[in-house]
Amino acid sequence: MKVRVKFFAILREKVGAAEMTREISEGSTVADLWQALQKDYPKLDVPGIRLLYAVNQNYVKPDHALKDQDEVVFVPPVSGGN
Amino acid sequence: MKVRVKFFAILREKVGAAEMTREISEGSTVADLWQALQKDYPKLDVPGIRLLYAVNQNYVKPDHALKDQDEVVFVPPVSGGN
Amino acid sequence: MFRVTNDPIDLQDLLDYVGDPAAGAIATFIGTTRNNNEGRKVIALDYDGYPEMAEKELRRIGADAQTKWPICKMAIVHRLGPVQITEASVIIAVSAGHRDAAFAACRFAIEEIKKTVPIWKKEVYEGGEVWIGTQTGQPLPGRS
Amino acid sequence: MFRVTNDPIDLQDLLDYVGDPAAGAIATFIGTTRNNNEGRKVIALDYDGYPEMAEKELRRIGADAQTKWPICKMAIVHRLGPVQITEASVIIAVSAGHRDAAFAACRFAIEEIKKTVPIWKKEVYEGGEVWIGTQTGQPLPGRS
Lengths: 82, 82, 144, 144
Prior knowledge:
The complex is a heterotetramer, with 2 copies of chain A and 2 copies of chain C. Chain A is of the alpha+beta class. Chain A has a single domain (2-75), classed as Beta-grasp domain (Ubiquitin-like (UB roll), Roll), CATH 3.10.20. Helices cover 22% and strands 27% of the residues of chain A. Chain A is built from 2 helices and 5 strands, in the order E-H-E-H-E-E-E. Chain A has helices at 9-15, 30-40; strands spanning 2-6, 19-23, 52-55, 58-60, 71-75. In chain A, strands 2-1-5-3-4 form a 5-stranded mixed sheet, with helices on one face. In chain A, a hairpin with a 2-residue loop joins strand 3 (52-55) and strand 4. The longest helix of chain A is centred in the middle third of the chain and has 11 residues, at 30-40. Chain C has a single domain, classed as Aldehyde Oxidoreductase, domain 3 (Alpha-Beta Complex). Chain C is of the alpha+beta class. In chain C, the strands form 2 sheets. In chain C, strands 3, 4, 6, 8 and 9 form a 5-stranded antiparallel sheet that branches. In chain C, strands 1-5-7-2 form a 4-stranded mixed sheet, sandwiched between helices.
């Protein structure tokens, strides 16, 4: 099955793309997808970064199982500041 | 000696004047002036009202002694609300 | 910028005044005339004020805020005279490097205004009018 | 009114939206680009965002605020792209019958925005640029 991955901010810069389609196996979780991406794009392994996972514009847990045509975003730390 | 008294809000309505000049004796306090005014204008005795005293645009205590040409204002409860 | 006025208040004037390259946060508060109060249907509010002393107290509030929090600039404008439903009777704007200070100073300013600034509010409601704070003999906050 | 935009934000649009005859208080917060951060001289900020999800999160914040406080209306607009010194990156406006609720909901909104809304800030400073929140490996607030 296929999922669409969008990249923002530092991850977009690291991967050099705003969006891509990935083939994944049934039962893959978002955490699995992230590991696979890090293997293909070693620069995605930003030291110390803490990510949230979003599927179809909702935050999900790392063990969330993906479905065909899902839109997946790995969310780096948001703007913060005080 | 003479002082100028300004009236605002409910006190202006009660006394029917925005401003007046009063002759007072040496050593009079603002509280003395207020008592004298209440005698001349019984309507100024608004039940339950709590006043602040201002002389020359500063809040003062009731025993503040007045000087010639002072500008005196009796300050009813300010706008309040939440 | 600390003043009272008989004209409608323009928030943009206050924002222009408090704008500052060192500010990362601007908090504002706008007090508006509400169409109801304690079950009464309000038609308008009518503010009376002692302008020279009111402006002096507003400046004092600004100076106090400057000593309490690291803010850049503060502006307060209070309107006098009739203020219709949805119109602003008071606007406060505070700029600061960070939002904690901006919020704290803005909140402080409106609480102080309602304690010590010689401005009085007459509520004109269906069936009558009343000077707020005077009708029930409630204790006056602050110095007495 | 919950949206992201590439254009300058007009506070008056938000005020027009939240205006309400039942409101006695409007609190606003404006986040602006500050000329310095942690000792660096900042030239500008550049915001990236995931617009559909950002607007969804902003609506969620508005709905949460409505359940927590008796407010009338809330508006949040966040800008994306470059934001120059003194310009607004985010504006929040909240109307309520009374000021307690307006202040509380406004404060809540900006804290939530900085935790969960997928918008990222790149600081362009003299000598470099950095994605804020990413540079030090600091823990991400909120869900993880």
